[in-house]
Amino acid sequence: MKTVDLIRKKRDGEKLSREEIQFLIDGYVGGEIPDYQVSALLMAVYFKGMDDEETAILTDVMANSGTMLDLSKMKGFPVDKHSTGGVGDTTSLVLIPLLAAAGLTVAKLSGRSLGHTGGTIDKLESIPGFRTDLSREEFLSLVERTGLALADHTEDMVPADRLLYELRDVTSTVDSLPLIVSSIMSKKIAGGARGIVIDVKTGSGAFLKKLEDSRHLAQALVAIGVHLGRKISALITDMSQPLGHMVGNALEVREAIDTLQGHGPQDLEDLCCALGAELVLFSGELSDHSEATEHLRKLLHDGSALEKFVQMVKNQGGNPAVVDDLNLLPTASKQIEVPAPQTGIVANLDALSIGRAANLLGAGRFTKDDVIDPAVGIEVVRKVGEHVNKGEPLAILHVNSEANLEQAKSMVAQAYTISDKEVATPKLIVERVTGD
Fold first, then answer.
1. CATH number of the structural domain 3-49
2. Which of 219-233, 260-274, 354-368 shows the lowest per-residue confidence on average (mean pLDDT)?
3. Active centre residues (catalytic)
């Protein structure tokens, strides 16, 4: 087999076989196929696409390019969740212990982020002492004993994805649907989950702004999961405004703890229960969607999920006292209000502007080498459909530095549109996509 022949084949819109895809991925990971040829292949895929079977094969080959987790001997049904990312996306912090409280097995491998705030790993590391650099043996031992653990991705898992993504990033081929799908799903497959739910965000603060694009991605992810024998569904959820009220790392941990104590924002609770219900149904523990949702809501309000969260924090070296004393989390030196310019109803709240403002304050990274300030971020006081009086805070900036303060403050103020007419709250769960 020759690489140039396979590049030409895909360039001409032909379908690659499993053997050909295996040859290409093995050759690239092994250092035998150079970047310039794989760049040409990525561009051919970008323009010619891949059908579901090809994408499923690519996903499977990428997943098997490194270490694969075997969760088949764990007591509970192994599940995983992925979000395409947004602003104030705290769901994993709540959902992981909630699922464990429901008796499911959650071996969650997550990452850091170049987004508006840090990734799930960054957020949890704002808890004093919390470790995510677990050895594979330590990670699996915790999952076996307690039903949950959360660790950073290691380089021995799905090396093909890491190498391909770095190349996609510099060849302008990131937004290719089969390449996006294979990147997401290869990590889920390698992680050993049998049931998977995908939270596909749509709206201004999402990776995909248009509903049609979000729908295509959700359908493609579900199709590939089905091809590879997984139980999978996707919820397309609103990200036109931030989820919950907190945008930042320690701030989002605070909000997650509030939610696990049964008094968090309603939209965050509703979304976690809806996502979790999909996985409970896959496990076979319950068969009715509304019953599964209410079961999870009960576990949030009776302390069961909080107990699992405390257990996870203890097991991974963190200080469990944060649950009772949120002041143990990093706290910004200043809180600065953004006042409403007039009395009225919030008609629009641009999630992207809030995210960018949080990034300016130091809550996220512009480059992979940037250091995140875990204490800073934005507290969203008023959301769409809510009334505010002139001079009352629309949002509160949690800041440690004044370097970009005025720009961030202006950005937050401009994110809000206030009307004198009643405005409906955006629908949180826009669509449900299943493999049926």
1. 1.20.970.10
2. 354-368
3. 82, 161, 168, 183, 187
